[in-house]
Amino acid sequence: MMEAMVFYLFAFLIVISALAVVTLRNIFHCALFLILCLFSVAGVYVLLHAEFLAVVQVLLYVGAVAILMIFAIMLTSKLAGREIQMTNEQTFLGLFLSFVLLFGLVYALRGTLFRIVAEGPPPQSTLQIGRLLMTDYVLPFELVSVLLLAALIGAIVIARQEGN
Amino acid sequence: MQLMHYLTLAAILFSIGFYGLLTRRNAIALLMSLELMFNAVNINLVALNRFVTPRDFTGQIFAIFVIVIAAAEATIGLAIVILIYRNWHSIDADRINLLKW
């Protein structure tokens, strides 16, 4: 009962803040609601007994990606005053297409039979994840670290001022 | 809570992100909508990991990779946005049509 209430609270927060992210006119408010949405997703991870992922979500998304977004907003939009048009002329078409996508997804979910296992989550999930990352998934783990390095260098090269 | 609740929540979040991706003009808002869609996928992965295969952590490990790659995508995307702004003084995605013919 308690779990259901917490789930619905987080689901409500996620949906409301996500709607705010895609509809508000002020891009800075959008970024703040995005942070709220990412926090609520971390709460859902805790409900799903994925504590390590919840911490990674807060550290990486809220701590890094959202702050990066706010930096980019500060650097690009001449914030106060001038109203920038935020949406294009395809609002109704976009609304229609996303409802079609939503109903298609829900229809497909209703028709799918998942083999749900009754057992609870094993204890010490963080330990297990660390062990798996260093044994079975060590190749993708190393590849992703090289990818991050490439993204870091690429971002510096792209955004650097020419000539100095 | 049952699996279907989580999957439906993820579907709703994905559709909202899709709507934002279709209708926004600001390039940074487009990247934000993409982040919403990544999060929907991650909720799916973690929920299926919890309810279908709780013993092996495949879903959670994939979610970690998705988060890391989303961070790399955001870094490169925002660098490109800043570069476009520096050259054109606008980040209106409808007007960035240099590669379109």
* Major sheet description of chain A: none
Q: Write the CATH fold name of the largest domain in chain A.
A: Four Helix Bundle (Hemerythrin (Met), subunit A)
* Structural class by SSE content of chain A: mainly alpha
CATH homology superfamily name of the largest domain in chain A: NADH-ubiquinone/plastoquinone oxidoreductase chain 6, subunit NuoJ
Please tally the β strands of chain A and state the result: 0
- Looking at the overall shape, the CATH architecture of the largest domain in chain A is Up-down Bundle
The helical percent of chain B reads: over 70%
Strand content of chain B: under 5%
Task: Tell me the greatest interface.
Answer: A-B, 82 and 70 residues
Mean pLDDT of chain B: 87
Q: Runs of chain B with pLDDT <50, length 5+?
A: none
What is the residue-averaged pLDDT of chain A? 86
Low-confidence stretches of chain A: none
Structural class of chain B: mainly alpha
Give the C-level CATH assignment of chain B.
Mainly Alpha
**What is Rg of chain B?**
17 Å
Q: Looking at CATH, which topology of chain B would you report?
A: Helix Hairpins
Order of helices and strands of chain B: HHH
